[in-house]
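Predict the 3D structure for this chain.
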Amino acid sequence: MNDPLVALIPVFLVLILYFSSVPIAFALFGSTLFYFLFIDTGTSAILVFQKFVSSTQSFSLLAIPFFIMAGSIMNYSGISEKLMEFADVLTGHMKGGLGHVNVVLSLLMGGVSGSANADAAMEAKILVPEMVKKGYSLEFSSAVTAASSAITPVIPPGINLIIYGIIASVPVNKMFIAGYVPGILMSIVMMITVSIIAHKRDYAPTREKRASAGEILTQARKSIWALLFPFGIIASIRIGMITPSEAGAIAIIYTFIVGKFIYKKLKFSDFVPIFKETVYGTGSVVLIIVAANVFGYYLSWEGIPQALTTTMLGITKNKYVMLLICNVILLVLGMFIEGGAAMVIIAPLLVPLMVKLGVDPLHFGMVVIVNIMLGGITPPFGSMMFTVCGITKCPIDGFVKEAVPFIISLFLVLLMVTYMPTLVTFLPNLIG
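Done. Predicted structure below.
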């Protein structure tokens, strides 16, 4: 198009529709269809539907329903309980013991469920009532639960790792490996935050003394089937035995066998809610990915990423300054747009720019994901905030006050991940 403002109408239309409570997938698809129907009338709108259908023909997309279902089975199979017991043995002796258990459980859950909202919901139901009984405030318990759930999608097989890999054409297995160090770093910083608050408020530990090596080993044996799962999946992908999609299928079989025949907590009647959760989760995630690919087709058709790259390079060619600008854009968007939606809108625009400046798209992917996880616990659209507060009935204003220290700690991690790319690329490069 000759008029650049006219060409940008679908971008503005996406935002207008989203803020009008239209689901992001329909906003993306509808805006693209509007472009080919009313702006670029020389091109058949059938191309939009062809792109929509062809975007579903991706083998990588199979990983999403498989891992969603595996995570759902885990919640019914007793795996999450075994992980919580192991987390308690490791950290229960510390001041604010249940707060530390909350963080460590999210770290362990990342290798199993990969979903921030699933982790937040599970811990809000199981841990928050127990924390309140032990003297923790409802607001603090809710805040640490939502904040710790931000770790889960960063640890493989996080769904956001898969989504970014597909959108940015980065190998999903590399995204998986790159998530470990940032995820562990988030856990450490968050545990330091819990420790500082716990000492100020004298939150008691759940254990009288530190667990002995024998106690840790005993609990590790009891939880071994839950602990082996994430490491076995990643190791199998790395040595080339299976693809991420095949790993998801194996994850379903594994969690079923462990839940049914080893922990003996999984019942066949549980599969009704499991299938419902899987269909709902898969439908929403995959529809967003496909709509994002269709929207990306419009962006490429108009050359908007290239134009944005040229414009931004006119501001600065320093990649560190540009990373700061991108973080500010994502943080501001995260205050008004749900993190996953922000990623599918902004990633296709920013990735070409960062590649042009010599930033590894793998590194930039972790910057984006950590950033949108920060948005997940901040108002007004933080999805984990609403998930936890909806279950615990915690007032939003009280939650926000208690969440501030955790937001600051996650922001520090974001800066480290942004300006220390080795934290992201070290493991993928080491493993090859």
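The mean pLDDT is 84.
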